[in-house]
Structures are given as structure tokens and as C-alpha cells.
């Protein structure tokens, strides 16, 4: 018997997911959830300066057809209270505490960029908590070029301001025709939510997160051989923010890791290739 394809109803679109809050140690964390409850939830952790509105709704919606999705704002970012941490260590401890407060004993984690740093640290800090790990556009502690994320990004952020374009056009995507089309489509998707949007990050939070990224890039390498769970690593083949060599490094150093690289794609390869990435992620999570 072949199952009929499931349809995403309007109530299951990420654009309509209400902002929710959970309080841990007097800090109120903002999150959104959708998808069927029960089973192992999938925690989504996002990039530098990202708020809840920066999760790609196409990816979230398709994952939510069969998975309970929880997208989280870090402390001090968006609608979450507190001051943004200066280390990945603190961010990981925050997420572990939020997962515990929400009542989950086991989770899957998908981390993009900064979120991938945090996801690795969670898996190392709480090895019994994470069942499966998806690391996208990211790299290991001490990875090549990670301490230079700011140096690479500032000129392109300025270019975005001068050209009246979102800097993610230049930071996340290649300058080819395919890359520019993918950037336009992705940025349009991020604007689909018309109500109850998250707060933009403050300059202070933005800079504090960058300090955490620099510290991660200068940190001594971690023993990734201790991550004894299935891991999917995905990136574009031309990531200029967290160089693609870091994805290869992760896949080599984590025992059960699988690597997927998308052609003519940059840091936002999973957004450019979302129609290929989502089935891959669903198969990985369901295996």
C-alpha cells in the first residue's frame, strides 16, 4: 500500500505559527512550534543575528509534515529576554535547559551556521539527549576561517547597504545567475509572514554573537569522535562565510557522518537547494 501524500494546511504553515515562550532561570525564551506532536521533536538553531523570522519557511513547513518542529531564539536575540552570550558554551547550555523545561528527554537537532556550532556542543555536553544531528553551513571549533567571519562579512554587509540589498544576497549565495535567483527567492520567502513578526536583533546582540563566533574559531579542536550518533553534514560547495572545507572536516572527524555538498552554492546551500535538502533530511531522520 502506498501512502497518499500529506498536505500542509494553512494552520501548519510556519508563517502562521504563534510566538510562544518558556521561562528558564528567569529568562524568557521565544520559540515557535508546528507539526505533529509525539515522537522525537526536531530543534532548529539558526545563524548569526537570526531571529525566528529567518528560518526558511519552505524547509520548516516540509519538515513539519511529519515532525514536531521547535524553532528557537537564542538568549538576548529577537523576543528572547536577557543578554546574548559571548560563548557557544553558554548558548548550548541555554538550549539544553530549554529542551529540559519543555519536557523532552530526546531530540533531533538541525543547526545552521552558528546553530551548527551550538548543535555540536549540545551533542558533546549531553550525549544522551540528541538522537540525530544535522549540521549545515557550519564547522568545528577551531575550524578554518571561522575566526574571520566578521572580516569576511563586514565588506559584504556594507555592499548590501550601498546596493539596497539584503546582505544575505552576497553572504549566503554565489554571484552566478543561479545564486542570485536563489537569493531573491529565499529573501522573498522570509517576508511571507505578515503578522506577529519577531524583533530584529539589537546591534549589541549582533556584536556579542560575533564575538562568540570568533571565540569558537580560535578555540582548541573538540574530540568530535565522541559524537556517536548519526550525523548529516550539508553545505554549498562555495561557502565563503564558514569555508566548505570545514564541512568536509566535520564529515571526516565524526564517525557516523554523511556529507552532502550542493554545486554552485554558498553558505545558504540548503536554502538554494531546499527541494533536494528536505527529502534528504527527512530520509536521514526517518532511517
From TrEMBL:
<feature type="domain" description="AB hydrolase-1">
    <location>
        <begin position="41"/>
        <end position="271"/>
    </location>
</feature>
<dbReference type="InterPro" id="IPR029058">
    <property type="entry name" value="AB_hydrolase_fold"/>
</dbReference>
<dbReference type="InterPro" id="IPR050471">
    <property type="entry name" value="AB_hydrolase"/>
</dbReference>
<keyword id="KW-0378">Hydrolase</keyword>
<dbReference type="GO" id="GO:0016787">
    <property type="term" value="F:hydrolase activity"/>
</dbReference>
<dbReference type="InterPro" id="IPR000073">
    <property type="entry name" value="AB_hydrolase_1"/>
</dbReference>
<dbReference type="Pfam" id="PF00561">
    <property type="entry name" value="Abhydrolase_1"/>
</dbReference>
<protein>
    <submittedName>
        <fullName>Alpha/beta hydrolase</fullName>
    </submittedName>
</protein>
Amino acid at each position: 500500500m502506498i501512502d497518499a501524500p500529506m498536505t500542509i494546511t494553512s494552520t501548519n504553515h510556519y508563517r502562521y505559527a504563534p510566538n510562544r515562550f518558556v521561562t528558564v532561570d528567569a529568562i524568557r525564551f521565544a520559540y515557535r512550534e508546528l507539526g505533529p506532536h509525539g515522537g522525537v521533536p526536531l530543534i532548529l538553531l539558526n545563524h548569526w543575528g537570526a531571529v525566528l523570522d529567518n528560518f526558511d519557511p519552505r524547509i520548516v513547513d516540509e519538515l513539519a509534515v511529519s515532525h514536531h518542529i521547535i524553532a528557537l531564539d537564542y538568549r538576548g536575540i529577537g523576543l528572547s529576554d536577557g543578554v546574548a552570550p559571548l560563548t557557544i558554551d553558554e548558548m548550548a547550555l541555554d538550549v539544553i535547559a530549554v529542551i529540559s523545561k519543555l519536557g523532552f528527554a530526546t531530540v533531533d537537532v538541525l543547526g545552521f551556521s552558528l546553530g551548527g556550532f551550538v548543535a555540536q556542543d549540545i551533542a558533546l555536553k549531553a550525549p544522551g539527549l540528541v538522537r540525530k544531528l544535522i549540521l549545515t553551513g557550519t564547522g568545528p571549533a577551531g575550524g578554518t576561517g571561522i575566526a574571520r567571519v566578521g572580516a569576511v562579512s563586514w565588506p559584504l554587509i556594507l555592499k548590501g547597504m550601498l546596493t539596497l540589498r539584503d546582505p544575505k544576497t552576497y553572504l549566503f549565495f554565489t554571484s552566478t545567475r543561479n545564486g542570485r535567483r536563489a537569493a531573491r527567492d529565499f529573501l522573498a520567502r522570509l517576508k511571507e509572514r505578515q503578522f506577529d513578526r519577531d524583533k530584529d536583533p539589537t546591534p549589541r546582540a549582533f556584536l556579542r554573537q560575533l564575538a562568540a563566533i570568533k571565540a569558537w574559531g580560535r578555540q582548541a579542536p573538540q574530540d568530535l569522535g565522541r559524537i556517536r550518533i548519526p550525523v548529516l553534514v550539508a553545505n554549498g560547495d562555495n561557502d565563503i562565510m564558514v569555508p566548505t572545507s570545514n564541512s568536509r572536516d566535520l564529515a571526516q572527524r565524526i564517525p557516523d557522518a554523511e556529507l552532502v555538498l550542493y554545486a554552485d552554492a554558498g553558505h545558504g546551500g540548503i536554502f538554494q537547494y531546499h527541494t533536494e535538502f528536505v527529502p534528504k533530511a527527512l530520509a536521514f531522520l526517518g532511517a
